[in-house]
Model the fold of this input.
Amino acid sequence: MRAAVLSTFDAPPVYRDHPEPVATDDNELVVEVLAAGLHHLTRAKADGSHYSGTGAFPLVPGVDGVVRDPSGQLRYVVLDDTSFGTFAERTVIDARRSVVLPEGVDPVRIAAAMNPGMSSWVALRRRVGFAPGQRVLVVGATGNAGRMAVQVAKLFGAAHVIAAGRDAARLAALSALGADETCTFDRIGRAADVDVVLDYVWGEPAADAMIPMLAARADRTAPLTWIQIGSMAGETAPVPSVALRSARLHIVGSGIGSVPARDFIAELPALAAAVTEGAIDVRARAVPLADVARAWTADTDDRIVLVP
Ligand SMILES: NC(=O)c1ccc[n+]([C@@H]2O[C@H](COP(=O)([O-])OP(=O)(O)OC[C@H]3O[C@@H](n4cnc5c(N)ncnc54)[C@H](OP(=O)(O)O)[C@@H]3O)[C@@H](O)[C@H]2O)c1
Done:
């Protein structure tokens, strides 16, 4: 069969012949891959920079996707750490890490949306006791995950959602997706009274935002949960100590490990339904798997979805 295959951390995958996947226990299924997203996590595992990467070669990348199982059912699957990913005509999945999808869904749309969509969905459901009526700030709102976070927060009943980013022109588009307010990082003090921050950026912008926000807070004893989800601006952030002393700031993370796999899986059906029903706007671009090398380095705002 044909697959995208990586032989080193330093070069894009090559589309070539690869041995067929084999199921090794009763929970495993050999499935046909219909669509698989090229996410930041996919790239980070492939270049060795993600904490969950295996470091083993040859590596077929692809951390998730929409597949057809041997009984003909469509499934969305999240793979465990493996060197046999979804960027292939066929792969092997653990059925317990998948959810059955209704027939007729668009595999490309689901494959594009689930990874970025899950980030805010799981954070709000599993990392904070989020309640309708609360106020949310999304830091890094112009990306795929950030723009979905705005929509997910509204879907969950947020009273006020503020979309923050570095580019005012790109932020302007978020009002149409439900953002009540937008602001660039230099105006982040306007988001002082939120209850939850969904942070996709981290690094200097996150650290620099904390003091202006906390200083302008009407009640500094009111809890503020800062959920670290992505690190587009830096893996580390110089968080000022006074931020933790002067206000009721809780910093937590949301991702593989801080949320158990079973909790991620439990949230998948509802997110898939929201995407299928059109409750969440998705930017997807289907690309043939044969073009994986070019897609790997493409500069696009759309989430690339590889189709074998
Ligand atoms: N933990 C989880 O569960 C989970 C799940 C999915 C994704 N993630 C992580 O979330 C992050 C975002 O993913 P995505 O799919 O939204 O990526 P994306 O579509 O590429 O968007 C990247 C976002 O980061 C912003 N950004 C990039 N570099 C920046 C910088 N130096 N300073 C400030 N902002 C910067 C971009 O702003 P511009 O629009 O101005 O370029 C954009 O808003 C990634 O780190 C990803 O790994 C985590």
